[in-house]
Specification:
The protein has helices spanning 11-22, 44-54, 69-72, 80-89, 125-134, 154-161, 200-207, 215-221, 274-288, 307-318, and strands at 6-8, 27-29, 36-40, 63-65, 94-99, 116-120, 138-140, 167-170, 181-184, 191-194, 235-237, 247-251, 265-267, 295-298. The chain is an alpha/beta fold and 319 residues long. It has a 10-stranded mixed beta sheet, with helices on both faces. The chain has a 4-stranded parallel beta sheet with strand order 11-14-12-13. A hairpin with a 6-residue loop joins strand 2 and strand 3. Helix 1 (11-22) packs across helix 5 (125-134). Bound molecules: threonylcarbamoyladenylate and magnesium ion.
Length: 319
């Protein structure tokens, strides 16, 4: 197969990325969480393409990627909390929900006509250079068809869209492996709307603020949480202590099938490191989705730290 639209970093590739954005077309790019499918956040035409390529419900708003809080505040109002979170966690895997400024130029399709906007400053040198030179926010969801497993490698993006996307920038495997933590930063206390690599404990330790997490708010306030997500083609069976016949198995630490098991088994983290498990999660699910087994069974994952975000993804994928 010819993967000519997958390109690694060079000055020319950065130029190509920017001219593609200016032409109101889409680029796929690496971030520290997962790969994104990006477009000029001010262009209705380009943003429409994101929704149609992904087959994404129009009521599910996109994240605007920025280079720093100053760029974010061109489009939304700062709060004491947003300043603190930006200072502590940006660049990094935190997305903040803030109130939009009126007539800020951001396409209404990006925010699904809400008064709020999601802003995030990713930690990735390639993407940083693109946004800095483009000098406008890039709206981007994860670079997968809606409902599918998120991509953590350039080749995963190709598996989703093939040559439909002109440029897929290959920045290697995403370091974190799961999507950013989404935080409502409009009030005095952070409210987690989507769990991610920055955990409640990390936020509480670094900010001395109590983190609120209200699952009723989750579904109403963060529309993306309503939909089927992260799903492989095969059935995913979670919290399985044993591997079944005709299954593949995704183990954790010492929970692995015995020697008699003749299916394919992978270990998310042999030494029980949850960060490593998060980084491997989507890559391993995608891999096991391709063999001949009927389903994928997954070991129980401890529900603390980033394990909470892992279990959130697994539960949605298993629905
Ligand atoms: O790590 C990430 O966040 C990746 C990379 C590419 O940056 N992006 C990502 O985007 O995961 P996406 O579209 O797959 O998820 C964005 C989430 C959705 O659940 C969406 O509903 C929520 O953010 N969101 C976006 N704008 C919002 C808003 N104004 N209010 C509440 N939730 C919002
Ligand atoms: Mg997504």
């Amino acid at each position: 197969m010819n993967f000519s639209n997958i390109k690694t970093y060079s000055d020319e590739v950065i130029e190509e990325a920017i001219s593609t954005l200016i032409k109101e077309e889409l680029i796929a790019f690496p971030t520290e969480t997962v790969y994104g499918l990006g477009a000029d956040a001010t262009s209705d035409n380009a943003i429409s393409l994101i929704y149609s390529f992904k087959n994404r419900p129009k009521i599910n708003p996109l994240i605007c990627h920025v280079i720093n809080k100053e760029m974010a505040y061109r489009y939304c109002y700062e709060t004491k909390l947003s300043n603190l979170l930006a200072k502590t966690f940006w660049p990094g895997p935190v997305t903040m929900i803030l109130n939009q400024k009126k007539n800020n130029g951001i396409s209404k399709l990006v925010t699904a006509h809400l008064d709020s906007i999601a802003v995030r400053c990713p930690k990735n040198n390639i993407f940083e250079e693109i946004i800095r030179k483009f000098n406008k926010p890039v709206a981007a969801p994860s670079a997968n068809i809606s409902g599918n497993v998120s991509p953590t490698k350039a080749m995963h993006v190709y598996e989703e869209f093939g040559k439909k996307i002109e440029l897929i920038i290959d920045g290697g495997a995403s370091e974190k492996g799961i999507e950013s933590t989404v935080i409502d930063a409009r009030g005095d206390n952070p409210i987690i709307l989507r769990h991610g690599p920055i955990t409640s404990e990390m936020i509480e330790n670094k900010t001395n603020l109590k983190v609120l997490s209200n699952f009723k708010i989750d579904t109403v306030e963060s529309p993306g949480q309503l939909f089927k997500h992260y799903s492989p083609n095969k059935k995913l069976i979670i919290n399985s202590l044993k591997a079944g016949k005709h299954s593949s198995y995704l183990g954790f630490k010492n929970i692995m099938p015995d020697k008699q098991f003749n299916g394919e088994a992978l270990n998310l983290s042999e030494n029980g490191n949850l960060e490593e498990a998060a980084a491997n999660l989507f890559t391993m699910i995608r891999y096991l989705d391709k063999n001949k087994s009927k389903n994928i069974m997954v070991a129980p994952i401890p529900n603390d730290g980033i394990g909470i975000a892992i279990n959130d993804r697994l539960e949605r994928a298993a629905q």
